[in-house]
User: Which sequence fits this backbone?
């Protein structure tokens, strides 16, 4: 399934790229261009009964939508990253070059990964509130994609976003209250663009990492960004990481939530759960 408007790549040549890579292989396949929100989920739900592999061609939002129809089935998800951040692909070490990603259809190995849900809505990589959610909301409405646009909104929110107080309950027991710059519930290790918010996160451990990032001072903000891009957030004094299978977030009011890079308006209370070993994915052989 191809999302024609994801990222900033022209997808019109994608059928030719597929033919070039798979033309000599014994493959039977169909290519479908999605027509709007919800279309990919509908097609993937139907595809479970017809295909062994369903490929998502787009960004993390497209991959999320395609994966919804495959959860809990034996049908395998292939990730062809053509979005902006491509967080899940980077975490799985899938090449951002279309031809190399396509070769995984016959060269890759199948791994079974965890997924998560927020109030029943699935996510594969991250779900979060605060700076990243507001940035995702602004980024989604801007016609100019790419890292520069995303970074501009993140910087604006660093200066202007007012943090809200949140009560967090882990696995129905321990609780804490905080007022951080952002809270990210991570299944994979990153937002995208190789911005690694949860260096210790694993897609196969049956746990979610709750990453709490407090507001760094102006002088220490550049160092925090460097640690984020180098996968060293666990060395920042502003970053805390808690592992749990079930996390309850209680906010003052409803608001935007970042679900795999897509902004979604959700209730004040967010019930976040891991769904262990729920999705089969094609990955590079180790």
Assistant:
């Amino acid at each position: 399934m191809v999302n024609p408007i994801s990222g900033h790549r022209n997808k019109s040549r994608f059928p030719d790229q597929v033919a070039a890579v798979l033309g000599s292989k014994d493959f039977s396949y169909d290519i479908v261009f999605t027509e709007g929100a919800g279309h990919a989920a509908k097609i993937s739900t139907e595809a479970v009964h017809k295909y062994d592999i369903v490929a998502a061609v787009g960004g993390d939002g497209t991959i999320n939508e395609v994966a919804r129809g495959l959860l809990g089935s034996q049908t395998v998800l292939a990730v062809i990253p053509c979005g902006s951040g491509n967080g899940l692909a980077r975490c799985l070490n899938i090449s951002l070059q279309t031809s190399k990603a396509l070769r995984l259809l016959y060269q890759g190995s199948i791994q079974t990964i965890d997924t998560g849900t927020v109030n029943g809505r699935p996510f594969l990589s991250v779900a979060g509130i605060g700076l990243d959610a507001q940035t995702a909301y602004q980024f989604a409405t801007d016609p100019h994609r790419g890292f520069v646009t995303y970074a501009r909104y993140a910087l604006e929110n660093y200066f202007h976003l007012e943090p809200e107080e949140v009560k967090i309950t882990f696995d129905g027991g321990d609780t804490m209250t905080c007022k951080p710059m952002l809270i990210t519930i991570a299944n994979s290790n990153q937002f995208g663009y190789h911005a690694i918010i949860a260096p210790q996160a694993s897609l196969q451990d049956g746990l979610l990492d709750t990453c709490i990032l407090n507001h760094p001072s102006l002088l220490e903000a550049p160092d925090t960004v460097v640690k984020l891009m180098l996968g060293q957030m666990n060395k920042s004094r502003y970053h805390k990481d808690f592992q749990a299978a079930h996390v309850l977030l209680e906010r003052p009011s409803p608001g935007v939530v970042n679900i795999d890079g897509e902004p979604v308006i959700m209730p004040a209370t967010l019930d976040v759960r891991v769904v262990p070993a729920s999705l089969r994915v094609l990955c590079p052989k180790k």
Notes: The mean pLDDT is 93.
